[in-house]
Amino acid sequence: MQYPPHSRTLSGPRRRSLLASAAGTALLAGCSHGSGESEESTGGSPSLTARARARAARESEGLLQRYDAVLAAHPAAAERLRPLRAEVLRHTEAFGGTAAKGSPASASPSSASVSASASASASASASSSAAVPVDEKEAVAQLAAAERALAERRTAALLDVPGELARLLASVAAAGAAHAYLLTEGAR
What we know:
Blueprint: H1 12-30, H2 48-73, H3 78-94, H4 119-129, H5 136-157, H6 163-186
C-alpha cells in the first residue's frame, strides 16, 4: 500500500530557523574556555593544545573582522549578519581570543582589538577584508565561503587535538557550516 504524499510542505524559514536553533544550542553546549588540560608542556613551550587554541582564536578574530568589513560596506545587511557576527564573537572568546564587543555597524576592521598573539594574523586579515565587493550579494557570498573554508579546516584539525578542544572545534565547525548555509540560502 502506498502512502499519499504529505499535503503540507514546510517553508524555507522554518528549516533555517530549526538549523539556526540547533547550531546555537550546540554552540552553547560546546563553547567553554576551561578545558582542564595542561596548556604548557614540561619544556615551557606551548603545547599542541595551546597552539591549536591560539590558532583557532586568530582565525575567529580574522572572520570577525571580515564580518565587520562587510557590515561597514553594506549596512543594509546588518539585520541578517549581526546574529552570525555575535556567534563568531562568542567563538573567538571561547578560544581565548579578544575582540571589540561594540556595535558591529560602527566597528571597522581596524577598530577591533586583538590579542598580542594574533596581531600579525589580524593585520593580514584586515588587508584582505578591506576589499569588500560593492555588490552586497557577492560580499555575503564571500563571507559564506570564508565560513565554509574555516569550518572545513577546523573539522580536519579534530584528529590532531585532544578531548575538550576537539569537542569545542567540532561545535564551532558545525556552527560555521550552519552560518555558511544560512548566508547562502538567504541570498536566494
